[in-house]
Write a structure and sequence with these properties.
87 residues, mainly alpha, single chain
């Protein structure tokens, strides 16, 4: 007779249930808690800070532009490498 240990223990199942609950309570638009962002008007205040610029996307868009006239530019795979200055 073969005795197998369960693939997932009680802690694993608890974490998976918590993750499922967290995902179920997210707003599909803003990603916040659905109870917060859909609360009655006047109950919450929403502020939108100014946008931040992604330097990696800036560089990626510039590089794609550079190759726009190459044969089959849609087949080119681009990636970014972010290097932090030391010091």
């Amino acid at each position: 007779m073969t005795v197998r240990e369960p693939e997932f223990g009680d802690d694993d199942r608890a974490w998976m249930a918590a993750l499922a609950y967290w995902r179920d309570t997210r707003c599909p638009l803003c990603g916040g808690d659905i109870r917060d962002c859909t609360g009655p008007e006047g109950e919450i205040t929403v502020k939108v800070p100014p946008p931040r610029r992604c330097r990696a996307t800036d560089a990626l868009l510039d590089e794609r532009q550079r190759y726009k006239d190459s044969p089959k530019p849609g087949a080119l795979l681009f990636r970014t490498e972010v290097h932090r200055r030391r010091g």
